[in-house]
Amino acid sequence: MTIHETVTVADAVRTRLERSLLAGDYSAGAQVKDSHVAEKLGVARPTARVAVQSLIADGFLERETGRSARVRRFSLQDVTDIFRVRRLIEFEAVRSVCQGADTEPIRESLARFSEVRDDQDWEIAAQADMGFHAAVVAAADSPRLSRLFQTISTEIRLLMALLRPRYPDVSTLHDEHTALLKALVTGNPEEALQLWAAHLNDAEEFLSTRIPEEPFREH
Q: pTM of this prediction?
């Protein structure tokens, strides 16, 4: 019974930390100490350690031997490579969807996106954004393509946290995705790919200026 309770609390702590990371509350490279997490969230240090280890295993945090965990850091080369892979995956998915795939799940993901308010945490908007792109990849009906997208999903989500200043109003981000869906529905792959390229290029260009400037904030 005690073990079950510990796991449950650790899962809750992990969820709180993950949301904070994706909301941009922690800078890339910022320390995430077990002791600070335990004190901040009012849990035992071993419980905090389990939560931190879980986030390390899933790629949200990194830890060098003998040092505290830190939020994943990205170089400009990392950003370029991640977006290169995103284009390979998502462009192929867009081509497939334009050939007549079922777009209803994509429409549903955008409908959920429309419910996100400007005054809500950025993590909710970022989750809605990822949900839309994941739905497009899933609509291509290629398990391997979906698995490839899943392998970089954690990195994409962490980079989304750094995009927060780019979209002071969530409605602006939602409108971009509305245009993307409209292009998919019309079934014109050239138009859809042009919009998709512009959407991803804009994000990559913003991140390329943001990465070197991102300060460390200790927690």
A: 0.84
